[in-house]
Amino acid sequence: MTISSHIAPAPETTSPGLENTVAAETILSHVDGAAGRLIVRGYDLDQISSWSFEALLVLLWKDLAPGQVTEADVQSALGQARAAAFHLVERLLPTIPHLSQVEALRFLLAALADSQTVPHHVMAIAAVPVFAAAIARNAAGSAPVAPDASLSHAEDFLFMLHGTRPSEENVRALNTYLVTVADHGLNASTFAARVIASTKAGMFSSVIGALCALKGPLHGGAPGPVLDMLDAIGSEDNINAWLSASLARGERLMGFGHRIYRVRDPRADVLKQAVGLLRHGGGRIGFAEAVEAEALALLAEKKPLRPLQTNVEFYTALVLEAVGFPRESFTNVFAAGRMGGWTAHVLEQERLGKLIRPQSRYVGPQPSQM
Ligand code: COA
């Protein structure tokens, strides 16, 4: 038998970063980057941004998961699952080594067993705020607070974080945030979740993989650095000098630019409005608006070929700071919202039942002929 000295070529077309590549069909959400629209199962973002997170889950899970057909069903199932997740916190929190908050979340999620009897999509959603709040408190030297199953998901998250009943306006702001970031087409973390789900590895493995993708500063790790940037700029008279120097060093301005949007990210406006409604959010918003305006002007000047607009992370930072999350926990709060989309995409991918296995184009050396 002769071995061919030529390696069969893979298809010619490659796209670094899979830009402009359609890798899945989904009924869940669509990002229209030219028009600046986000559509979630037939609704524009501004139609659903006032919904409860539980109502959004009903929509996302509809026909993909058994049970939980009403908002009340979801609220009750999540409340019970948060209580179950808290047992893990009590057992495992003292054993967590020295980790960042998102690493600690990854650690605790990894302890969810596939043999778990609570439906996995419900447990995945319930566990994140329980873990994230306990991790944030632990970092501040405080004991975890047990969930209250009777509360809404957003209210209980703040209750577990602060140990006191949150104000209605803070609950509303956090709920708006969770709904706004819940799903967003085939972003990197959702794609990661679908790849893992396609191997039939299960819900927990899929969403942990998604969290690992979310953690990077080009995806869900940006809002903490947005606040660092606002702090570093410090005052209005330093905005232009600071941003210009940062761009001159070739740095990226956190909270700006997007792979799909060529116009303003519609989520930025929803979150800007949410923070504007908070009485104590107003202080920083004026300064943030001034930074945003200057950043957009400088980006248009320095990067004329690439329309760079404000993305979701800029005002995320202000909302989460205003309701009392420490910036080190921001990625975990993002995961709490995006878990809605991840679980639905995993369910959709599992239903499709097709392994995701693309090809690569070999550009290395040919084997030498024997
Ligand atoms: N600040 C400065 N320049 C930016 C920029 C930013 N925030 N975002 C993109 N650019 C520039 C790049 O430097 C590049 O310029 P060049 O062609 O002169 O080298 C050009 O725009 C294209 O960048 P590229 O990395 O190819 O675009 P992308 O679509 O892959 O990147 C992001 C999308 C989100 C990764 C990118 O905009 C970014 O890094 N933003 C900052 C981080 C952030 O806010 N992430 C949260 C996303 S929701």
Structure description:
The protein has 370 residues and is an all-alpha fold. The protein folds into two domains: 30-218 and 327-352, Orthogonal Bundle (Citrate Synthase, domain 1), CATH 1.10.580.10; 223-322, Cytochrome P450-Terp, domain 2 (Cytochrome p450-Terp, domain 2, Orthogonal Bundle), CATH 1.10.230. The protein is built from 15 helices and three strands. Strands 1-2-3 form a three-stranded antiparallel beta sheet. It is globular and about 60 Å long. 45% of the residues are buried. The mean pLDDT is 93. It binds coenzyme A.
Short description:
With 370 residues, the protein is an all-alpha fold. The chain has helices at residues 45-48, 53-61, 71-92, 101-109, 120-139, 153-162, 168-180, 188-198, 203-214, 223-233, 239-248, 266-276, 282-302, 312-322, 330-352, and strands at 29-32, 37-40, 43-44.
